[in-house]
Each structure stands twice: as C-alpha cells, then as structure tokens.
Amino acid sequence: MTPRRARSLRFTVALLLAAAFVLAGCASTARGAKGSEAPLDVVTLNLWHDKQDWRHRQDMIVAELRTLAPDVIVVQEVLQDVALPNQAQVLASRLGYDYRFFSVDAPSQARRYGNAILVRGTVEASREVKLAPLDDYRNAGWVRATVRGRPLNVYATHLHHTPEGGAIRAEQVAGVLALIDATSGDVPSVIGGDFNTRSDTPELAPLAAKFIEAYARTHEVGDANAVAHSTLNTHLGHPPERIDHVFVQRDAFRVVDARIILDRPDAGGAWPSDHYGVWVRVMQSDVSRR
C-alpha cells in the first residue's frame, strides 16, 4: 500500500469513527430526554374560611408557602364577601401565582364560598361542576395549566363531611371522575382536596384505579387516625384523622416525598388553620400516558 493510500484509509476510518460517536451521542440524548423526569410540588390546605384572625393566619400561611414555593396549591373553604376580598385571590396575588376560584354560588353574589387552584405558572383553561346531591353545595374544579414548561391538569374538591355520609361521598367521587374523564385528555393529572374521609375508605376506592394517594405511598401510616398523621388540628378540638389528600396519576408520576405542613402555632399560640396542610413532591415523566 502506498503512503498516500494509507493516509486516505486512516482519514476515512477517522471520519467513520467520528460519525459513529456523534450518532451514539444523539441516541443517548434522545433516550435521556424521553425518559427524563421533572419535580412537581403540590400542596393542599383547608383555609378555614375567615375564622379567628384571618389577616394574621394569612401571613402565617403565606410565609410557609413562600418558603416551600410549591408548583401547585389547592385550597378549600375559600370565602369572599362584601368586606372580605376573595381569599384565594389574595394568596395568589401575594405569592405571584395564577389562580381560579370555583363556587356553587352565583358570580353575582357578594358572598361566595368554594375551592381554588393556584399555580406557579399559567392557567390555560378551567371548568367547574356541581356535585350531586345538589343540596350538599359541593363542587369540583379543573384547570389546565403550564407548569415548569409542561402541561398539567389540576383538580380540586371538598367532599361531604358527615361520618355516616359515605354513600354521598361516593356519588361525589363519581362526579369528580366524570370531570376528569371529560377534561384530562392525554395530559397528566393531580387531585387535591379535603375529602372528609380517610384515603382507604370504600368511597374513595374508585380513585385508586388511576391515582396514587401520595402521603400513604411515602409513609408507614399504620393507624391512619394517629396524631402523627392527622390533617385535622387536634389542638382546635378535632379528633385525629387524615382527611386531606393529594392524588397523582399512576402512570405519569413517581412519588418522592410527602409531609404534613402548617402544623405549628406561632409564638402567640395562633394556628394557620384548623386543618394542617399536605405537601408532596412527585417526579413527572416525559413518557406520555397510555
């Protein structure tokens, strides 16, 4: 082989090796992007409407939420009245979040009561439905939001409250699932709310087929009514019970952590609410749900 041909062969081999390296890198990047995960932090909290000193409680809640900086906040017992600006709107304004408020009360009414969803992103669409039976005055709300550059469905609800009302809650859960079926599309979904029952009760079982209850996934709960896991504030006269939950879609999220928040009084003995909040962190996959 002549020196010229040898140099030409070495050059060709070098080009082929370089091309193979580039292609391998592209394939690896594509695989990494497809399977990559992004964190999503969600909080649910019952605000206790305007009980006690709302202005002071509001400051306590805002301080904690600023520290946590969750991507999604779902709140219940949200009130507005003639002399009371909408509590969700106030929180959203102070935190710099977009929000939607949902109420069975007519928009023309001065006094309206309901639930809200706040997102550290942009709300693209929303809808609300009244839940049966209508004389229980319950609803469910939905937003399609862009959070961390990704589309996300968020649902909020607050179910019937009596211990013997499991059949009513079951009917309301069916209404929530119907809203999800009508709005979720192929976008991952999370649900937050005051369900007024433990997550292992029969009325919430239909949620388990498609959703994971995040707190239970990360804790050896044991006795679900144990004080350590209660979301009802036992210092304000409630029995210990874990009734506030965040559910995340099974095939879209991996639960990383969950804990009880807003569960301490301030130096003066004031509490943020008569419920504690629940904070969860999940990892969202890029892989589309099937």
Structural account:
Strand 7, helix 4 and strand 8 form a beta-alpha-beta unit. It contains 6 helices and 12 strands. It has 290 residues and is of the alpha+beta class. It has helices at 3-35, 54-68, 87-95, 166-183, 205-208, 214-218; strands at 37-46, 72-80, 98-103, 112-119, 122-131, 138-147, 150-158, 189-194, 211-213, 244-249, 253-261, 277-285. It folds into 2 domains: 1-35; 39-285, 4-Layer Sandwich (Deoxyribonuclease I, Chain A), CATH 3.60.10. The model is unreliable at 13-34 (pLDDT under 50). It is globular and about 45 Å long.
Radius of gyration: 24 Å
Shape: globular
For the largest sheet, list the strands in their spatial order. 3-4-2-1-12-11
Number of domains: 2
Query: What is the architecture of the largest domain at the second tier of CATH?
Result: 4-Layer Sandwich
CATH level 1 class label of the largest domain: Alpha Beta
**Approximately how much beta-strand content do the residues carry?**
25-35%
SS-derived structural category: alpha+beta
Largest sheet: 6 strands, mixed
The number of distinct β-strands equals 12
Distance between the ends: 58 Å
Q: Which segments are poorly predicted (pLDDT under 50) over 5 or more consecutive residues?
A: 13-34
* CATH topology (level 3) name of the largest domain: Deoxyribonuclease I, Chain A
Name the CATH superfamily classification of the largest domain. Answer: Endonuclease/exonuclease/phosphatase
